[in-house]
Amino acid sequence: MAKLHITRVDTQTVGPFQENTFFLRRDDSQETVIIDPGDEHERLIAWLDGDTLKPVAIVNTHAHLDHIGAVAPLIAKYGVPFYLHPADLPILREAPEHARMFGVRVPLVPTVDVDLAHGDVLRLAGLSITVLHTPGHTPGGVSLQVDGRLFAGDTLFSGSVGRTDLPGGDRDALLASLSHRIMVLDDETVVHSGHGPDTTIGTERRSNPFLTGRF
After folding, report:
1. pLDDT, tens digit, for every residue of 190-203?
2. Which DSSP string do the residues of 200-211 spell out, in sequence order?
């Protein structure tokens, strides 16, 4: 009988916005998908190389400054493709201007190699990752579903939901994404958010003040 693999997720919290960068892989492989590398590329590279991991792709849930700051240096180091939803390209291009406004390190703007679309299944690092288009926080925001886990970016948090008061935000779109794409998932689904601790769909259904009574 073939051995069943276990999906492993490691997290590094980086930068002044305390953004969660995720490393997704099978427990029987060093091939790794990097999700939302937001900042501190030197630390991320040191961690990857220290564990002899082999990045195969960078996949971003959205293009806000705090989620893309380390993308270009990691591409330069590892030569991997960068995946992003095309509706977030304007936000990506404006990242240097946004960095100057916040007084943080100005990132290099990476080139997008692969456009994401709702329903795509990414075959990466021996995993099947389903793309859910979940706009609202940004027009091109996506969530990534794999093996009972959801990488929700800044759409859903433990006890909160994504902001819609930033450029490109849309409250009605966010509520539709939550209703039709996220809160329909099993309660046991583990949610890895762009900031803060992990949670589950069931926990948020029962106790998130922005969701209780809606779903």
Report:
1. 999 999 999 999 99
2. EHHHHHHH-TTT
d(CA 151, CA 13): 15
Answer for the pair 162, 173: CB distance below 8 angstroms, yes or no: no
Q: What's the pTM?
A: 0.96
The owner of tokens 């859910």 is 132
Q: For residue 25, what are the contacts with CB-CB under 8 A and spacing of at least 6?
A: 7, 8, 31, 32, 33, 53, 125, 127
pLDDT value at 96 more than 70: yes
Rounded to an integer, what distance in angstroms lies between the CA atom of residue 139 and that of residue 169? 7
Q: Does the structure show a pLDDT above 80 at 168?
A: yes
Mean pLDDT (whole number) for 19-26? 98
- How far does the chain reach from its first CA to its final CA, in angstroms? 41
CATH T-level fold of 7-207: Metallo-beta-lactamase; Chain A (3.60.15)
Q: Is the CB of residue 39 less than 8 Å from the CB of residue 19?
A: yes
Band of residue 65 on the pLDDT scale cut at 50, 70, 90: very high
- Residue 198: Cβ-neighbour burial (10 angstroms; 0-12, 13-18, 19+): middle
Q: How far apart are CA 66 and CA 87, in angstroms?
A: 18
pLDDT at 6: 87
